[in-house]
Structure formats: C-alpha cells, structure tokens
Amino acid sequence: MTSASTRLVRLLNMVPYFQANPRVSYAKAAADLRVTRKQLETDINQLWMCGLPGCAGGDVIDFEFDDDTIKVTFSAGMDQPLRLTSTEATGLLIALRALSEIPGVVDPAAARSAIAKIETAAGGLAGAAPAGEPGAPESAAVAAVRRGVSEQRALAIEYFSASRDAQSKRVVDPIRVVLVGDQSYLEAWCREAEDVRLFRFDRILEASVLDEPAAPPRPAVAAPPNTALFDADPSLPSATLRISPRAAWMLEYFPMRVTAQLADGYCEAEMTYAADEWLARQILGFGADVQVLAPASLAESVREAASSALAAYSGLAG
Length: 318
Prior knowledge:
Blueprint: H1 4-20, E1 24-25, H2 26-33, H3 37-49, E2 62-66, E3 69-74, H4 86-100, H5 108-121, H6 140-151, E4 153-161, E5 166-180, E6 183-190, E7 195-200, E8 204-213, H7 218-222, E9 238-243, H8 250-253, E10 256-261, E11 267-272, H9 276-284, E12 290-294, H10 296-317
Antiparallel strand pairs: 1-3, 2-3, 4-5, 4-8, 5-6, 6-7, 9-11, 9-12, 10-11
Helix pairs in contact: 2-3, 4-5, 9-10
C-alpha cells in the first residue's frame, strides 16, 4: 500500500509535470509518472477537489480534459518557486519549533534540518527568528515508539500509570500517535488488557521494537481515537473534582477530562483512579484548591485523612 507521504510527493510533482507537458495523454502521463491509469485518474480527482469548503472543485487546481488529454488551466502558483515573506518565514519557524518540542510528532533531525534551511533562506529578512537548536533531543523510548508506529511493528514498553501510581510492562500493537493539547499519546492495542489504550509519551519509561509485525484488530484501527479519559480503564472508578486556577496544572499531569468551566477560572473535571487511599493522598496535597464532588466515599476518605493529619499536628503543638 502506497504511504501517504509517497502519494503527497507524487501529487505535488504532478502539477509541474502537466504544466511542462500540456495536452499530454492519459497513457503517456501514467507511464511517465509510473502509475496505472486508474491511479492517475484518482490522483487528478484528488488534486481537483483540493480547495475551499463546499467541494465544488477547481478552487486551487483546475484541469481541462479534451480527447483523452489533460491540461492544467489553473495551478495556484504551484509551478513557481515558493517565496516567503518575513512574516510567513517567522510564523513557519515558530510552528516548526513548537512541533519539534512535542515528542513523537516529527522527526527531530528532519525538523532541525528544515529550520536551518528556512533560517538560511530568511537570513536577510527583517524579523527572521534567531538561529538555534530547537527542543531537547528525544528520548530513546520516544524514538523507539515512533519507529514502531512508522514500521508497524509491535512494541514492548514499560509505562507509569498516574491513575494507578504504578509501573507496568506490557506488549502493545501500535495504531497511531495522537496529539491532545500539547501532549503526545501512543494509541495502541494492549495485549494484556485486550483493548485499545492511550499511553502518554512522557510516561513511557522504556520501549523496544519487537521483531514481529503489529497486529491490532481491524475495528480498533478503523475506530477514531477515544481521548475522553486518556489512560482510563472502564473498570476503574471515576471522581468528579472542583479545581481552582492555582491547581489547574494537574490537568496536564493526570488523565482528566474537563466537564465544566466555572466562574473565576475554576473548573470541574473527571478523573479515573485505582484506589481511594491513593487519590485521597494526592488531593490532600492540594489543600483547598481541589474539592471532591463525587463519589461520597472518596470525599469521606479525604475528610478522614485530613482530620487525622490535623489531630497529629494538634498533638505536636500540645
């Protein structure tokens, strides 16, 4: 199966080819581009449908078909060298630097190469971003995960689950990399759980590519990513918390889903967890900035733990 990147390169090369060969026949174009006629027709239709919402066709690339020949009548400037303005170059550099700092999204070496080339080309433009190395080098675990996804091979990983406060080793079949906010997750079929799981990149402690192909079930691959509760196990209980702006950072660290935005920057969020005792300890550390709304059993655990702590300190004061 042709990869998306290979097809993109072919599509981008087709426009200047047709510009250089006006009224070329389908047979010759297919032979020159080394594709079947059916694939050529599919590619032309995809190019023709690129454009603005509404799917009218011809917004960006337009063709004229006559006597089994093809001619590009509008190319949106794709046959001309791209020239970036100062603003465009700066915006592109900022976006590339941001992507390079998110583990697993892009190849860091490729990002650094692209940034260096843009900086060199934009060196004479006012407002060009200063040169420098983007982002920290990716970890060996992240590199292995990205390789497993691209090569569609199974992975052995060691993972820290925040909801269980424990590390575990498991074998997974990668499906895709999912970007949620500014965090990258590996979506994979977990052989131990026999279900799809999302593994946050910065909690994958170790990863190695196995010498066997990834074999996630087809329904799991076809289904869209479920990012509602990232590492959530449906068998685990769920807590509803009221979080103050000062404790909002916990939304970036724990697997949580915001359910309501409240006044003064407060919010309500759902969080899965394995044991009342573990989550009660976490919540006590936030003081009054995090309040348990449900379940009642967890709220009672927090209340009892806080009372015990206060009693211990009262004894010391006495």
